[in-house]
Amino acid sequence: MSVPSSIAVLTSGGDAPGMNAALRAVVRRSVYEGIRIFGVYHGYNGLIRDEMIEMNVSSVSDILHRGGTILRTARSAEFMTSAGRDKALAALRGRGIEGLVVIGGDGSFRGALELMRLGFPVMGVPGTIDNDIEGTDYTIGFDTAVNTAVEAINKVRDTATSHERTFIVEVMGRDAGFIALAAGIAGGAEVILVPEEGRDLREICRRLTSGLRRGKLHLIVVVAEGAARAYDVAAGVTSEAGLETRVIVLGHLQRGGTPTAFDRILASRFGSAAVAALLEGRAGLMTGVRGDQLVFPELEACLAVRKRLDPELLKLAGILAI
Ligand code: ADP
To answer: For the whole prediction, is pTM greater than 0.90?
Structure first.
C-alpha cells in the first residue's frame, strides 16, 4: 500500500459530542505531516455527490468545544448500493485522494469496510455516545452523554426527595446498556435496566419497596430505551407496588452539548493516530483505547463481535443498590 499524499475525512451516522475534536485532530495532524486534507460534508452522501472542501489549520479553529459535527452527518441509503459506492470511489479518486478517515459508529464502519473491499484505504475512528463498539474501552461522546445523564439524575433526585416519588429515567441505548449502567452507578440509581439482561417487574418492585422501608427518600430507576420503555416501567411499578412515579425521557439531550475534557482528549488522540496510521500504510483498522494505551484493532474483527457490558460493573451496580 503506498503512502497517501492526500486524504479525506467524514463524519457519519449518529452525531456524538467530540466528533469536532476528532476532525480538528485529523486536519491538524495532516497539515503537520505536510499532506492535503479534504473534509467531506454529509457523510457518505457527500462522498457520492463530491461535496468536499480542502481544509487547513484555520478551517478547524474554534470547534474543539462544540458538540455535533461541523461537517454535518447523514445516513445514506445510496451508499448501501454498489452503484453508490462506485460513485463515492470515483469522487475520491477524481480528486487524487488516497485515504479516508471515517468518524462514526458501527454502521459507518460497515460502509468503510465496503470501501476497503474495493481497494480503498480507510481508518475508522469510533464516535458514538453508545460506546457499543468492540475493540475499544471508550468511544467518542460516551463520557459526555453519561455526564449529561448524571446531571439529569442529580436534578431529578432533588425533586424525588422533596416529593417522595419514584423517578424512572430513560436513557439512550437501543441495543446496549453502557450509558444506563455508567449513569446508573454514577447517579446512585436503585435499579438499572439494560437490554443485555432480562427484567423482572417483581424484582424491580422488591428493590424499590425495600429501599422505602429502609427510609430512602428517593427512588431512581435508570432504564436503557432498549430494555423497556420508561412509561411501561412506571405503569408496572405503580400497579405492582402502588408507588407514585414520574417519568423523564432524556432523548436527544444526551447527544448534544460541549464534549467533556475526557472526550476531547480521546477524540484528539484518535484523530491524530488515524492519520498517522494511514501515513504508515496501515488501513482497515480502528483507533481504540485499552486502559490508557492506543490500539489499532481490525475493523472487521470489531464488527464481528458484540461488545459486552463489564460484568464487574454490573455486579457492582447490584451491590451498591442493595
Ligand atoms: P452509525 O455509524 O452511527 O452506526 P448508521 O448505522 O446509520 O450509523 O450507518 C451510517 C451509514 O453507514 C449508513 O447510512 C450507510 O450509508 C452506511 N452503512 C451502514 N451499513 C452499511 C453497509 N453494510 N454497507 C455499506 N454502507 C453501510
So the answer is: yes
Residues 13 and 132 grouped into a single domain: yes
For residue 134, the domain's CATH number is 3.40.50.450
What integer pLDDT is reported at residue 163 of this predicted model?
Answer: 75
Nearest CA to 255 out of 105, 85, 121 is that of 105
Q: Flag whether 171 is in a domain.
A: yes
Distance CA 99, CA 122 (A): 6
Query: Which residue ranges have their beta carbon within 6 Å of ligand 1?
Result: 12-14, 44, 75-76, 79-80, 104-108, 110-111, 114, 128
- Whether 315 maps to a domain, the answer reads no
Residue 71 has pLDDT above 80, yes or no: yes
Query: How many domains does one find in the chain?
Result: 2
Measured CA angle at 263 (ends 58, 46), to 5 deg: 55
For 303, the grid coordinates are 464488527
What pLDDT does 88 receive? 98
Looking at every residue in the chain, the average pLDDT score rounds to 95
Q: Which residue has the cell 496501515?
A: 282
Which residue's CA lies nearest to atom 15 of ligand 1?
76
Domain span at residue 195 reads: 142-255
Position 1 scores a pLDDT of 55
Which residues, listed in sequence order, are joined to residue 224 by a DSSP beta bridge? 171
